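User: These chains co-purify. Model them together.
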Amino acid sequence: MDERDLMGIIESILFVSGDPVSARDISQILELDIRKVRKLIKKMIDCFHFERRGLQIIMVNDTYQLATRPEYSQYIEKYIGKKHTQNLTQASLETLAIIAYKQPITKAEIEAIRGVKSDYTINTLISRGFIREVDRMDTPGRPILYGTTEYFLKSFGLSSLDELPPLESK
Amino acid sequence: MSYLVKLEHFEGPLDLLLHLISKAKVQIEDISITEITEQYLETLRLMEQFDIEVASDFLVMAATLLHIKSCLLVPRPKTELPEDQLEETDPRQELIAKLLEYKKFKEAGIKLKKREEYFSRMYYKLPEEKIFMDNQEVLPTNADIEMLQKVFLLLLKNQKNGRESIPIIHKIKRDPITVNEKIGELKKYFSKYTQTTFFQLFTKHTDREGIIITFLALLELLKENFIDVIQHYPFGDIIIKRRA
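Assistant: Joint model of the two components:
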């Protein structure tokens, strides 16, 4: 099997899966070294972009998924109608930003930065699946520590937390 | 004539302060506490005029601002420390640090919003149905006749079950005997006998629940001052005596 076959197989697996597939699973199916798999997918990602294909491969924490290209969304929406999405409020966004950059973080620490109570916002973010309780702090009261989810990464087009845009100090 | 005043919505006192600072076109580091405090209080007054409930966080900040302002006004007492060891403490420092920190995340939030808007315009496909057997995924590559047969039998079984009862209902077993019933039983026992031991209360067939329920019943009886218990050493048998 040459590379084209391998890439074809990976593409068809991603299509069938629909959900993200881990590099490990793909390497097991293809009986191929995981590093080789990552390299192949990287090549596919570039190739999909270069050819401006309608589909792209997105990468989140070493898992891969087929998705349509956001640039073409208006045409998709002409066909299937607009996705109903609820916009995130400024309160949600700044809270989410604090959690994303400073995780794991307690509610008290979030509130210290925002200067306002944040229970409601935190609950909204949990119910929308962007954050979750990751641990408890080893201090009196064992406060909950919050962190972001994989869904957060996917929704914001991030492969990993390292890809968060750098915080500007001024 | 009526005015239409648009009062912006602020996430909190820090948000409001940032707004006032940007309106004054000064750097956060160079804020004049006197001016900003005045404007801040003015905004709060406006909010009250419009019947907007001012959250306590805003009031705390107002107090903080006034405190800083007073610190700046009051001449500082002379300290005996030499000049170079005197810490240059600007009472504004803490507030400025907080504002800078908050601003960082507020801006990061705006950046995130743009990303989310862009990436929410992606569409995904639903996964194909996967077939599981004994929690192990069956891929065509490792299927043989035996496996096919198993899958087939499983399908038949599922179908048969499916017709009879679709949802799987977990039954919660009732305790074979309740604590109250056990108490009654024990009282009856003690109407005949005056003494027994904990171990004697069980047969070989008493299960864990039975032991727990008996123990709870004994605790209850002890509380009612119906019995006395004596245990000579830890984990040893417990002598149970009826109270006279």
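Chain B has a mean pLDDT of 78.
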